[in-house]
Amino acid sequence: MTSNGNVMISVTDYLFLGSVEAAYNEPLLCKYGISSLIDMTNTSPGLVPANKKSDCPCACAHQTHFRSKLNIGVDDIEWENLEQYFGEINAFINGARKMGRRVLVFSYMGQSRAPAAVIQHLMQHFKMPYRDAINIVRAKRPKVKLNSGFVKALCRLEKRLGLQETDSALAVREATRRAESPRVSCGSVEELETLAVPPVVRGAWLEC
């Protein structure tokens, strides 16, 4: 099992996003206190290849770990009706959050299904436009690539929630973007301040 790259990122203090490798890494889940899982792989545990599962045992003091799980059986295809699960996904996430639990949302590659679920939660819970939500996720997991059907579903959600940016807001955003070029100071480049986002969980694999 490879130890390179990010298999999991933190999106908020209670919400994590990852691939199937993250869900089958017991030491990783224990290290970050993840006790709730949303499985969007649409793959039974017995069909997950052995090389996707960590064989490192958990070294914490707990002999057993109980984790609640929500299975969402969707495929990564553009005509999949992901919207029908938004309410169920958010109810599970919010229930865990209120109990002080951390949630990992994962799909097989962690590139389309799980990110779409996380993005819609950011939009609904934080009243965040689609563009802002996907930018936050992509800033920490650049490999995210939603299929076109999921993008359309999120745009419909944005419209229903009334979160679309007005023409004037878009103009302000574009003007701000153009103004935010790096400044040279004392021979170094000063990065302008940008929207703060939660830290990335880097190098998540643990050595046995």
Automatic annotation (TrEMBL):
The keyword Hydrolase applies. This is protein-tyrosine-phosphatase. It holds the Pfam family DSPc. It comes from the Eukaryota. SMART domains: DSPc. Signal peptide: none annotated. Belongs to the protein-tyrosine phosphatase family. Non-receptor class dual specificity subfamily. One of its GO terms (cellular component) is cytosol. InterPro entries: Dual-sp_phosphatase_cat-dom, Prot-tyrosine_phosphatase-like, TYR_PHOSPHATASE_DUAL_dom. It is an enzyme of class 3 (hydrolase). PANTHER family: DUAL SPECIFICITY PROTEIN PHOSPHATASE (PTHR10159), DUAL SPECIFICITY PROTEIN PHOSPHATASE MPK3 (PTHR10159:SF519). Keywords: Hydrolase, Protein phosphatase. One of its GO terms (biological process) is negative regulation of MAPK cascade. Residues 6-163 form the Tyrosine-protein phosphatase domain. Its EC number is 3.1.3.48. Gene3D superfamilies: Protein tyrosine phosphatase superfamily. GO terms for molecular function: MAP kinase tyrosine phosphatase activity; MAP kinase tyrosine/serine/threonine phosphatase activity; protein tyrosine/threonine phosphatase activity.
